[in-house]
Structures are given as C-alpha cells and as structure tokens.
Amino acid sequence: MVPLDFLKRLRRVEVRSRLVSQELMAGQCDSIFKGRGMDFVDVREYCPGDDVRRIDWNVSARLRKTYIKRLVEERELTVLLMVDLSASGHFGTSGITKRELAAELAGTLAMSAIRNNDRVGLILFTGEVEHYLPPRKTRQHVQRLLRDLLTHTPRSEGTNLAQALDFAGRVTHRPALIFLLTDLHDEGYESALKSANQRHDLLVFQITDPREQTLPDVGLALVQDAETGDVLEVDTGDPSVRAAYEQTTAQRQEVAREFLKRSRIGHLELRTDKPWSNPLRTFLTLQARRRVA
C-alpha cells in the first residue's frame, strides 16, 4: 500500500509542476523545447537561386550535374533530466530541501517537454549512475518519472558529475537538450561539462540553500559533510571563522560561475528560500533566444 504522505508529496509536486509549466509554455519559453537541427531527406538538381551552401559536392561530382541537399527541420526533441541525488540534497533550512526543489523543477521541465510533444528521460546519479528512465512522451511517463525521483533511495552519498555526463553521452545518440540539476558539490567536472555541451544543449541548474553560504552564530558546533561523513568542530561564535567560511564559499561559487560563463553553458542559480518560477521563465526565455539565433 502506498503511504499517504508520499501520495500527498507526489500530488503537491505534480500540481506545482503543472502550474509552472503552463506559465512557461504560455510565454516565449516554448522555443527552448524545439529541435534546431535539420534532417537530410535526399538530393535534387540545383536550380538558380538555391542556397549554394546546400550543394552536395560528392553527388554532383559523381553525376556530373549540380545537386543540392533537401533538408527538413528536426522537430522532435529529446529532453534529458539529470538529477543529483547525493546526500547534500537532503539539506534545507527554509521549509524545503534541495532535493524537493529539484523534484518540482524536474517535474516542471518534464511537463513542459511533453506539452511540446517531446520525449523526456531521467538520469538519477550520486557517486554513480543509479537509475535511468529512457525518454518517452506520455503523461503517464512523467508521473512515473516523478515517482522514481521522489521514491528512489540512493546507494551512494557522494557526487560524480563526470561519470553521470559520460553515461548520458553513451545513452543519448542524437543531440539533446540536457537539464543538469545539481548543487555542484564536486570537483574535476569541467572537462565533462565542456564535452557534453559541445554535443548537446546543456543547461545547469545549481540548487543551493542560504545556510550553505553563511554560518549562524551558535557557538561551538560539530559540522558534518553530508557526502564524505567528515566531522569538524567549528567555533561559529568567532567572527573571523564565519568571515573565512563566507569568503571561501563565495570564491568557490565565483570560480564555478566564471567557468560556466567562459564555456558558454547556461547556468541558473536557484535557492530554497526564494521563489523560482519567474527566474526560471526569464532564464529559459533568454536561452531560447540564444538557441535559435
């Protein structure tokens, strides 16, 4: 028997996701869910006025006449949601955890994709790839996607972005729109992100909690890293300790932000203590314009 608490959580995520999805698709964000490539159909003989860039030189040389490629717009898009389920996702000090926010965001993106008749798949990962749901485009599929996301019990506590992105590359044979939902609590992922973005359209949604950026003044405290299990005694009553923590956190975030900007990877920072539907709409509208430019 399915627990009542889970059904309430699932219903809340579904309703929230559907409402935000309707807002997104009613605006200009629908173009983010459109194929931008062109599929080859066949060739035909060149006519004056045709785009010379579409000349098929191999066929023209073989048949001794000038032929051009006939192309059709690639309309169906594969959307892949990659969700980080590492132990740090259970953290939340504003009424919602990072994992719960990721579930609502993933549901919104999934529903937006199927509203546009696109296929959507799911990869759940930690220090390893733990679950893969191949892309499909039915409402029942999205319900299963949300159920898997909310009920999956991770086997690992760490994060390995590079391994997850490598797996995504192996199961996604055509260019896709990849949404990576993570707090970026990992190292050595830069090359994997660049490689994925060269082949696909990669957008990174970094989910954070305000308490990760500042330490409260609660005196001596034992602080544990959720992913490594390391425990450290910290004197949060010392202003210099709090200042050093904030500076280190800010520097790490700035390094990640600058890397993603240089690599031309779309990046949106979302916090558990702030509304996210309007920032999401603005971000996707901007990305859609860049995508079709």
Short structural summary:
This protein is α/β, with parallel strands linked by helices and 293 residues long.
Continuous helix count = 8
* Poorly predicted segments: none
Q: How many domains, in number, for the residues?
A: 2
Strand percent estimate: 15-25%
Architecture of the largest domain in CATH?
Answer: 3-Layer(aba) Sandwich
Question: Which labels suit this protein?
Answer:
42% helix; 293 residues; Rossmann fold; alpha/beta; two-stranded antiparallel ribbon; elongated
Description:
With 293 residues, the chain is α/β, with parallel strands linked by helices. The chain folds into two domains: 4-33 and 75-292, von Willebrand factor, type A domain (Rossmann fold); 39-73, no CATH class. The protein contains eight helices and ten strands. Strands 5-4-3-6-7-10 form a six-stranded mixed beta sheet, with helices on both faces. It is elongated.
Tell me the layout of helices and strands.
Blueprint: H1 4-26, E1 38-45, H2 57-63, E2 67-73, E3 78-84, H3 98-115, E4 119-125, E5 129-136, H4 139-151, H5 161-171, E6 177-182, H6 190-199, E7 201-208, E8 220-224, E9 231-235, H7 239-262, E10 266-271, H8 277-292
Parallel strand pairs: 3-4, 3-6, 6-7, 7-10
Antiparallel strand pairs: 1-2, 4-5, 8-9
